[in-house]
Task: structure prediction
Amino acid sequence: MESKCRNKELTTFAKLLSGKFTNKEQSYKSPNQFAHINIYFRPLPWSLFETYSFYSEQSFEYDKWSPYRQAVVKLSEKGELFILENYKIHQSERFAGGGFDNSLIKSINKDRLIARNGCAMQFRKIRKGHYFGKIITGRECIVSRNKKRTYLVSNVDLYNNKLISLDEGYDIETNKKVWGSEHGQIECIRKEYFEVPQ
Result:
């Protein structure tokens, strides 16, 4: 019975994550503070990891074919936590646009994936339909920006049809903020749902 309940919870979380999210409303209200971006979590075949996984892509609305972030994320459970492991895609430019064109990501397989150590996120259930996530480790998810090595601090609220996130990069040596929003969280609403494997 416990296993079935856990599987049901994992499916619920996968369905909540799946889809196209956009901050169109936020960017229209405050165009000088927030660019219009789209965030995609496109389900991949169950056979890839024998669990739920997604092709993740983030892009500016004005340049959909040149995403600024691409990854594959693998979903699993650990106790009461939901874990999203992060994988870099070899030759990721070949899959650019896969968020809105599913045919572009059909050839993704494990041979193209490289685990990004230290970049997994853990989500905890706050209440029914509401989860809060953050990077598991403190300073181990390294991102290079403008020739600087930074560590990523990421917080995500996922509930109803909303995805609210804040990503910031801090200098690995000084701990000073190097990049990230100066105006607070990105507030996205799900505009399209993608069916997850059953």
Q: What stands out?
A: Residues 29 and 150 are 31 Å apart (CA to CA). Residues 2-17 form the longest helix (16 residues). Helices lie at 2-17, 24-29. Residues 1-6 have pLDDT under 50 and may be disordered.
